[in-house]
RNA sequence: UCCCCGAUAGCUCAAUGGUAGAGCGACCGGCUGUUAACCGGUAGGUUCUAGGUUCGAGUCCUAGUCGGGGAGCCA
């Protein structure tokens, strides 16, 4: 400890023993202090006029002028805020920096270190700028040039998002993707803060799962077996070994002859089949049954062949779980959560949000403000069906029929949230046959439903659609077992999940919020591939 | 996975089956406390891949690859 921190006060005593006093914010002297030698562009903007500063960053644009015997206007960004800072580099007389000829040749993307003075700007477009005058110690040190500016992938001009996706390693240097990155960070922090402030504990649920019981779509296999010659079950094992790769080559064509027997996963790394997780919920429920309020936030994997602007093979999901909570409480938590996130990005990243409002989605700020103003509309599924049927009777056209007991289609959800209510809608109490086994069975006739319903909820928001899916969980072992049986699931696999209902079961509820969908909702970005740094989609895992 | 659309200069897009074009960007010059600058000039192409039709294919046909929009699945 004393190697890292200088201890300001003497040793403390705890139960009679001497301990170094734990460092506090006021006694910690940071070892890593870049502000000693340079400051961020963000803090340069906040520095008073007259301050000598050094900044480091990348050139966004370089404009030249013949005024004052020669000037270069370097817009330099270090990503710490939306705006680059303008550095006015002198090129005439004794004020000229020594390497002015090189500075003139700087192009978009070059990295530089600039010494100068914060001054009030003479031009329009910025309040302050960095004056680089050699007589006042001003200098520009070139750190890295852009070789062949003609082919620099993110030249200073408009690019389509489709093109920039192919330049994912450089796209974060653009206005849009820099803003996305900062808002994404802000959203992560706000999300943790929201739960932390409400006594939730962050639980790291596993990425690899060996239980095939999560049941939320196709999974990616995790294996260390030799794909060309995997061990086989029973007698087939010997045959497969003899035939070598021949056997596996015929795996796909199971016609005639002896089909190779199933792969013996007892020889695999975990001794059984393993996959990447599709949800942390079942695991987090175990911690909920001891810590009361928990959440998990991590990557989630779906091997579905989904080719849409709203799906990724690898995405991040936030899943809170609350003990002693019912569906109503769950819905209110979800609403508080979404509003907290909106407020956080609006107050913490006003520069980026202004940009999204002006260039990405006109009216974004108003849309988000409207969501903050009104309570979410709660609506039973059964009532939603009635509204949709009435809409059809009045002439509204849908591609898919509306019928109690079937899932609502995207077009139905969009109608409800974008046209009928024009605000976020929480749909509740869905027919049991279209929802997962762990959702709590409602009493017969809840909301006047003609069939059995479960305590499920979906939060639908304009422009994005389903952003949250959640439910009250089935805490009654006998009812849970009946549901597992009805859905023909392997009850043995759920032994530890069932244990939670055997030993001190409690009502509990939770939801899952797709982090990238929240990003789309908050930024107005229309493609999920543009709100995650390195998107993974079918046929695409570059970078 | 299904339906529709697309792939031509670094980028965005034109080009009736008959010599490959523009804007932006880059480079050079002019002008300017500039800032989506402006004006003039220069360079830049195996038209996604493989077949096919044709005297002749960027253009028509077949297959494939990749990309986009929509749908399903969902978050």
Average pLDDT rating: 89
CATH class of the largest domain: Alpha Beta
* Low-pLDDT ranges: 1-10, 236-258
Name given to the CATH homologous superfamily of the largest domain: Bira Bifunctional Protein, Domain 2
State the major sheet: 8 strands, mixed
Q: How many β-strands, per DSSP? A: 19
Structural class by helix and strand composition: alpha+beta
Q: What is the strand content?
A: 15-25%
At CATH level 3, the topology of the largest domain is BirA Bifunctional Protein, domain 2
Estimated radius of gyration: 29 Å
Task: Report the end-to-end length measured between terminal Cα atoms.
Answer: 39 Å
Note the total helix count.
15
* CATH-level-2 architecture of the largest domain: 2-Layer Sandwich
Q: What general outline do the C-alpha atoms trace?
A: elongated
Fraction of residues in helix: 25-40%
Strand order of the largest sheet: 9-13-14-19-18-17-16-15
Number of domains: 4
